[in-house]
Specification:
Elements lengths: L4 H6 L3 E2 L7 E2 L2 E12 L17 E4 L6 E4 L2 E7 L2 E3 L4 E7 L1 H5 L2 E4 L8 E2 L2 E6 L5 E4 L3 E9 L19
Antiparallel strand pairs: 1-7, 2-3, 3-4, 3-6, 3-13, 5-12, 6-11, 7-10, 8-13, 9-11
Amino acid sequence: MILPKEEIEEQKIVSESLGQSQFQPCGVDLTLKEAHEFAEAGSVDFDNSERVIAKSRKIEFDSKGYLHLMPGSYKIIFNEYVSIPQDVAGLAFTRSTLLRNGAAMNNAVWDPGYHGRSEALLVVSNRHGIRLKKNAKLLQIVFFKLTCPPKQLYQGIFKGENKS
């Protein structure tokens, strides 16, 4: 079952939102806090024993509050803090306006027990780039009630990320 707006708000699954217009009938729009460009290569292995998270550099907004991002990949940090209950999981999708402008968001599953100010990958394909205003709505996260709670909650290194 997809959680409706009222249950998302009641359970406080998403906090630090910028306004009610973010709450859709069955999901919440996540908004742009920061964009970063990758500064080095990362490393992915099977058991995370050799995992390296690529360092990145924050991109500053211009005097009018915009970023002009050329084609490429960028790390996005959202304004909102997400706290997934033990009987819920989240899946997120690129907002259609972003797609219509030649860019897409890639992200992972929000597991039960995760909480944090999440990050996602923005891929700009439009050869002219894209302009994003601070707090732009980029992603819609939809929450699903699990038919039975998992035996284990999320315990990964990203739990509690980007608290401020």
